[in-house]
Amino acid sequence: MPNGSLMKIDVETFKSSPKVIGLNQTMKKMRKDEIRFVVLAEDCDAHIAETVKEACKTHQVHCIVAGTKAEIGKACEIDRPAAVIGFLDE
């Protein structure tokens, strides 16, 4: 998916789509070309944001910056904040 295209993500997508949570798992799956798109929290550490954005550019994966870590964790129905979510190819 080209960067610059618009995507709409709703809470149901977070709940029902296959995904990995966290930087390490997302990067591992991205290196295997198994990631469809990434959601990055607006309030994540600058180092994490830079790492994820660069990897997305390298692997041609769309990166969406949206919501806080707490909001993303809640949308994924986990009991902790989440800075990075990688949605898997279906």
Q: How would you describe this protein?
A:
This protein has a single domain (11-88), classed as 60s Ribosomal Protein L30, Chain: A. It has a 4-stranded mixed β-sheet, with helices on one face. The protein is globular. It is an alpha+beta fold and 90 residues long. The longest helix has 14 residues, at 46-59. Helices cover 40% and strands 20% of the residues. Helix 2 (23-31) packs parallel to helix 3. It has 4 helices and 4 strands. Helix 3 (46-59) links the parallel strand 2 and strand 3 (62-65). It has helices at residues 11-16, 23-31, 46-59, 69-75, and strands at residues 19-21, 35-40, 62-65, 84-88. This is 50S ribosomal protein L7Ae-like protein.
Helix/strand-derived category reads: alpha+beta
Uncertain runs are 1-6
Number of domains: 1
Tell me the Rg in angstroms.
12 Å
Largest beta sheet: what is the strand line-up? 1-4-2-3
CATH architecture: 2-Layer Sandwich
Output the helix-strand order: HEHEHEHE
CATH H level: which superfamily?
Ribosomal protein L30/S12
Strand segment tally: 4
The proportion of residues in beta strands is 15-25%
Query: Quick one: overall form?
Result: globular
Count up the helices: 4
Outline of the structure:
The protein has 90 residues and is an alpha+beta fold.
